[in-house]
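Title: Comparing notes on inverse folding

I've been comparing how different people in this forum approach sequence design from structure. To keep things fair, I'm posting one structure and asking everyone to reply with a full sequence. Here's the target:
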């Protein structure tokens, strides 16, 4: 979550919710169960789970690359002030951190800040000259106002007598005026040639001549505040060793943690490509001749992650460097931020496009800062049109785009045929006064009944007594004839959701 932290709400169900809306805030008695996985599902009969891809905004690109310094726009971060609704956006244009603002998140202004020149032009929106792959995090928790905005990025610095590449950080009171931390890098990064891992006592490690340590961070950096672990975290690209043991074969994702945004833990490998992504071969000499950048086969260029509703979501950048040259976005899931599942690997969350004249046709750079509004989630992203395996062209079509999703509709459950049912795990419903469903029953219907903890139906709350839910709505009320949840005797109950040609995305207990 680059800047996802805006407000933390502790709810009575023991969850901590990071919320960036400014619209609907979860109440203290509210718990939303997302149907994106079966964490709260006891079992399902005759159903399947399907991803709901994001919708590209019709006015894309939100920020076209129309300035001479905007070469290959890629990584970006966004923050929306929940009080004013004002948006701030930071984006990278080939080694330069640039800045834009908006009142509605759709129409953007690139202010002339006069902070950094470009080839003699002083009226620019350039904030910093940087290395590569950075992310901005807004942190209202910091008692020091000069550190409310935090920036983590890839670059070089001098440690002792030698230059090293790695993770650098900077701080700002307003997101515009930045001070780089004097220690640079704060964490040595993974980079270098196709060599066998050095011996631990090799003097080339200290001088930086042999690159950075294996499985460290590399040149894609996405910082978040992780309320689940009460720590800062960075999800970053790293490099895996190849079939022959040499370094820098395929890209994967590591996580590193910090309490102060300066001192970071040893990176931990959290997501890596596997046999289902394709082997990619061991044609190392061909890769060297072509200029490096890893092998063929699909690889994970990085995995920006954010925390929402007690879960972690990653927008994996799945780079197909050898075949299509595209990098679509895949949705991955985790309940602890370290162990990740990829249930939608064959269904892009944000796909590439056939029309290569579009700015976001091929390479899509996701980030960890979605904007969560009352009824809509907004995902901003950098992108460019050229495939990865085409010669580099810094003047290619690129920019920042927007993709949207109705609230909580990451994935839904529907019948394999016409009917199906979902039986939820037992719940104590004494503190619950109402139940609503985020569901599309425009072509069918939904009924909800209650079973006791042993699995028997409860008279008065059975399927035949349930109100029929129809239509497409984010908050369908659940009810029964002249009865409500509050009329139940004390005990634990299983909610059973009957689907008749309908799809459910989430269930909220108030």
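Reply #1:
Here's my take.
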């Amino acid at each position: 979550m680059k800047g996802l932290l805006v407000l933390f709400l502790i709810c009575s169900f023991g969850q901590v919710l990071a919320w960036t809306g400014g619209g609907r805030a979860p109440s203290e008695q509210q718990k939303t169960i997302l149907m994106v996985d079966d964490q709260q599902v006891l079992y399902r009969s005759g159903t399947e789970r399907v991803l709901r891809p994001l919708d590209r905004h019709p006015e894309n690109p939100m920020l076209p690359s129309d300035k001479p310094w905007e070469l290959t726009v890629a990584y970006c971060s966004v923050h929306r002030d929940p009080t004013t609704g004002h948006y701030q956006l930071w984006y990278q244009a080939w080694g330069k951190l640039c800045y834009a603002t908006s009142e509605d998140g759709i129409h953007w202004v690139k202010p002339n800040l006069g902070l950094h020149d470009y080839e003699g032009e002083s009226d620019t929106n350039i904030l910093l000259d940087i290395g590569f792959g950075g992310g901005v995090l807004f942190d209202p928790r910091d008692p020091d106002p000069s550190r409310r905005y935090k920036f983590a990025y890839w670059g070089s610095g001098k440690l002792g007598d030698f230059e090293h590449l790695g993770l650098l950080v900077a701080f700002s009171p307003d997101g515009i005026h930045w001070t780089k931390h004097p220690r640079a890098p704060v964490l040595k990064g993974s980079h270098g040639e196709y060599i066998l891992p050095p011996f631990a006592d090799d003097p080339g490690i200290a001088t930086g001549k042999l690159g950075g340590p294996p499985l460290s961070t590399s040149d894609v950096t996405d910082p978040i505040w992780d309320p689940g672990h009460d720590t800062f975290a960075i999800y970053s690209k790293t490099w895996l060793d190849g079939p022959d043991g040499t370094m820098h074969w395929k890209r994967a994702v590591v996580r590193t943690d910090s309490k102060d945004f300066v001192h970071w833990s040893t990176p931990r490998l959290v997501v890596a490509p596997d046999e289902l992504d394709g082997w990619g071969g061991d044609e190392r000499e061909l890769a060297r001749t072509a200029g490096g950048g890893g092998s063929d086969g699909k690889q994970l260029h990085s995995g920006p992650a954010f925390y929402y509703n007690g879960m972690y979501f990653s927008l994996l950048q799945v780079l197909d460097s050898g075949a299509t040259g595209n990098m679509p976005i895949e949705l991955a899931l985790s309940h602890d931020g370290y162990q990740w599942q990829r249930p939608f690997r064959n269904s892009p969350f944000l796909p590439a496009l056939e029309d290569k004249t579009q700015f976001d046709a091929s390479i899509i750079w996701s980030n960890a800062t979605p904007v969560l509004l009352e009824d809509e989630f907004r995902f901003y992203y950098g992108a460019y049109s050229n495939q990865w395996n085409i010669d580099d062209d810094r003047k290619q079509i690129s920019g920042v785009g927007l993709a949207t999703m109705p609230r909580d509709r990451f994935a839904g459950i529907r019948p394999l045929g016409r009917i199906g049912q979902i039986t939820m795990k037992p719940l104590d419903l004494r503190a619950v006064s109402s139940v609503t469903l985020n569901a599309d029953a425009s072509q069918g219907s939904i009924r909800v009944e209650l079973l006791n903890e042993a699995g028997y139906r409860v008279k008065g709350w059975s399927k035949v007594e349930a109100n029929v839910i129809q239509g497409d709505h984010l908050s369908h009320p659940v009810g029964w004839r002249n009865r409500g949840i509050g009329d139940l005797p004390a005990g634990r109950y299983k909610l059973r959701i009957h689907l008749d040609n309908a799809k459910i995305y989430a269930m909220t207990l108030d």
